[in-house]
Amino acid sequence: MKQDDIGVCPICGGVEFEAGFQGRMVNNTTAPQCRSCGSAERHRIIRNIYISLKPLLKNWRCLQFAPEGALDRHWFKSYDYSAYGGHNSYDMTAIDLPDACFDIVVSNHVIEHVSDDRAAMRECLRIVGDTGLVHVNAPSPAFRARTQDWGYPDPKRNEHYRDYGADMGLVLGTAIPDAYVLGVVGMDPVTFVSDIVFMFSLSETLLDEVSTTLQKGSQTPIRLR
Question: Has this prediction a pTM greater than 0.90?
Fold first, then answer.
């Protein structure tokens, strides 16, 4: 992270921040939500990861579940999205699309709401084919060691079926034993909160290329499998 980036939203360039949902602050002192674009920590972390990946994106067809401001759709060769109850409301466990019709599938804070996360992973990998990439992010997996799955959408936990732990990449990787897994650790330049994004592919060559590109962009990829 460059000194000039500290305290600046990488999505909109904003420098003014306010409390998040229900007055949430980070460490009781730092306001996390950008007043200009509404981004929170995870959005800015993911935006910086994809800024580093820009050299690859121009050739990729992207499908995003539950679109939000972390990605710039204009960076991709093509971009489409699935909104629950709206545009392309696909069932993530049985996606009504042909094999290998996209190059990357992105979901942020979605898979914890899906009843069968392994089926969802198999479907996402199917529609990116043998040379595509699946990006998955969930709330704060680094804060707990192991994934806890209670098997129903708990209304007391934002309708989540589970809380993912630091083992998230390996837990989801069991859906397809041949998949390679990469963890990418990023830091928010505003709150200095860290988060991790997991990337899966059936192509070791692609994942190596992604890892090298991320390192050139000063990101921290960790090969998990």
Answer: yes
- What distance in Å separates the CA atoms of residue 121 and residue 43, rounded to the nearest whole number? 22
Q: What is the 3-state secondary structure (H, E, C) of 21-71?
A: HHHCCECCCECCEECCCCCCHHHHHHHHHHHHCHHHHCCCEEEEECCCCCC
CATH of 41-223 given 3.40.50.300, 2.40.110.10, 3.40.50.1970, 3.40.50.150: 3.40.50.150
DSSP H or E stretch at residue 204: helix 204-216
Q: Where are the domains of the chain?
A: 41-223
The beta strands (E) that lie in the chain are given as 17-18, 33-34, 61-65, 78-82, 104-108, 133-137, 148-154, 160-163, 180-187, 194-201, 220-223
Tens digits of pLDDT across the chain (225 residues): 555 678 999 999 999 999 998 899 998 789 999 999 999 999 999 999 999 999 999 999 999 999 998 999 999 999 999 999 999 999 999 999 999 999 999 999 999 999 999 999 999 999 999 999 999 999 989 889 999 999 999 999 999 999 999 999 999 988 888 999 999 999 999 999 999 999 999 999 999 999 999 999 999 999 998
Position of tokens 């060691």? 145
